[in-house]
Amino acid sequence: MSHRAALGTGHGGRAPHSHSHSVFSGPRWVRTGTEPLTAYSALGARLVLSAIALPLFAAGAALLALWAASARPAGSPGTAVLVALAAVCALFTAVSAIDIAVIRRRRAERR
């Protein structure tokens, strides 16, 4: 008998999701009995990393956008490269801001 069959999960080692509750209430997965009762994700570490990344990527996006605006068309690096890098920094800024909002919501739910 396979490990999954012994656990009765069949979903990559995770217990099946219960659809009897709303999206935001209750646990995401039914406990299998192998994880600690008090296990939490590393929200504090995620918050620190996102709080550091947010201003750095925002500054990077602004500086790269200013550099792209003042760059000569035939210069090196090209304007397209600078705009692409500014867009990537702006994307990482948005991801960091969203992560901070999610962490705050999860911490509020815990209380």
Query: Pairing-aware structural class of the strands and helices?
Result: mainly alpha
Q: What is the count of helical runs? A: 3
Measure the end-to-end span. Answer: 42 Å
The fraction of residues in strands falls at under 5%
What characterizes the major β-sheet? none
Q: What count of domains describes the coordinates? A: 2
Low-pLDDT segments: 3-7, 17-22
Sequence of secondary-structure elements: HHH
Give me the count of strands: 0
* Helix fraction by DSSP (H/I, runs of at least 4): 55-70%
Determine the mean pLDDT. Answer: 80
Question: Per the principal axes of the C-alpha atoms, what is the gross shape?
Answer: elongated
Question: Rg, please?
Answer: 22 Å
Molecular structure report:
By secondary structure, the protein is mainly alpha-helical. It folds into two domains: 1-39, no CATH class; 41-111. The protein is 59% helix and 0% strand. It has three helices and no strands. The chain has helices at 3-7, 43-70, 79-110. Helix 2 (43-70) packs antiparallel against helix 3 (79-110). The protein is elongated. The chain starts with a helix and ends with a helix. Mean pLDDT is 80; it is low at 3-7 and 17-22.
